Give the backbone structure.
Amino acid sequence: MIEATAKVHAGAELGAGVSIGAYAVIGDQVRIDDDCVIGSHAVVTGPTRIGAASSISPFCSIGSNPQDKKYRGEAESFLEIGCNNVIREFCSINRGTVQGGGVTRIGNDNWIMAYVHIAHDCRVGNHTIFANNATLAGHVHIDDYAILGGFTGVHQFCRVGAHSISAIASIILKDVPPYLMVSGNSARPNGLNRVGLRRNGFSEQALQALRKAYRLVYREGLLLKDALRALRALAAESEEVARFARFIAESERGIVR
């Protein structure tokens, strides 16, 4: 299932049922697990691992050197992509740097649309959606079920929390707590991602608790430390609020507000 015009390095490892399209290039130290599809003209360089049943569309650049001036060709530079990911045309995903832990890591079941860029040392969870032209700078963390609207840009070292969503052309300069909807340049909160939460099975009781938590942080005019103090009682009764409060307390860049 390898097209005659494809170039596969002798040091690459291909699992069962892997399909390699015309003029694709698979480099040394690349491992592609079972049932993956690599589209025509895609380039995958190593050290890179792609999990089973993932799809790389034509003209992608996967596993290329990090775009970091500090990078000096160190061997401890890896890309790990999990299973069942869909990566559409013209995406670029870079390996990690020694300074950032050495690994760019993408989880499972992610939907990554055309022209997305994921820079060095990023961590992407599971079940995320990146719309066309979303861009992650280095060291960004995207948690499970987060959705980035088209042309969203995320500043380096930011974290985007689980089940959050950004509107089109949002510029995220600070951490986005879980469950939020944000938009603008720079991004500001616009309430909870209620539609997404309901689609993912959150109960009405959980939504009510999160609405109270959101009001404490964003509507009551409280200092953040006072809002966190007020969240403690709610967090004791709601796992979702506890996760929301913990994210805010652990934020190093500060949160959108």
User: Anything to note?
Assistant: The chain has a mean pLDDT of 97.
